[in-house]
Amino acid sequence: MAINNNPTTTKWALLLYSILTLRHFGLTMMLQFIVNPQFANVHENFLLYVTTYNSLMIWVGYVPAVLMLLSSISMIWLAPPIFPKWAVYAGVVLGAISVATTLLVMMPIYTQWAITGYDATQNRHLLSQTLYFQIIPSALQVAILLSFLYVYFRDIKPVAKWIFFCVVVLNFYNLGTTSIEGSLAYPLWETVGAKDWLAYRQTPPSLLFSIMFVFAAFSPIFLLIAMYWQRPKEVPKYLVTSYLLLVLYLFAITALYFVPHFQIPLNNTHSLSLIKELKTNDWLYRAPAGLALQVIVAWMFLKIKPS
What we know:
Distance between the termini: 20 Å
Number of strands: 0
Shape: globular
Helix content: over 70%
Strand content: under 5%
Order of helices and strands: HHHHHHHHHHH
Largest sheet: none
Low-confidence stretches: none
């Protein structure tokens, strides 16, 4: 199976596979539990809402999903021989199931809604199908990925290894969740009418959003502190410090500026100007730091020498 003998190519292929797989999982979790249930509360401008969704999802969701599948297929040739053959093929099959559900189940339904309008029965069916044929396969694919990383970096001390793995998983998972929040959700908010706004904002429950998005985004703070003492020996302390400072910056600006200035007022009233300002400022003040986090973790990943 493995015809590639270049360790650098293998490492880059595994990094790309890790990024796309974990991003896909974070994105599908947000779609299943946060975005999809909100369709039921949009009435006033529904056709505009679903048309905007369809156009944005091409680049936010559909193209990256196909790239994830292609990346999993590439592992057939680029994975090191220490990876079990069955696990590599299982990852491809699970990725194919998840992507097929995205392209052959989700996309046609939303395309139809842009013409015929919302169908509650169809949406319940959609949520069921995406749970069993998108979320679960994607979660299993992540589990296989972790087994690959465990074998690939087998010489790292156990505590340092698992702390590093948690940082990798949360970071690239957050790449998917923040793609939904910044690149999909905020533009969709602009299409929601004032009559629907308060009901729309209450779906889903804030506790669920906090667990799936907020906790996952900021829990690496504790892991980064632990990495000062327990980390792979090739990872320099300056990368740990850089990541920690960026996460603390994002936490501070979110808690002190974005939440009180945008999120709390929008919980109580509809304001198109405030939504547009939120979208603009998110790209200015949070997106660059978020991109830097991805670069730092990828840099950490590439610096570690597999056994």
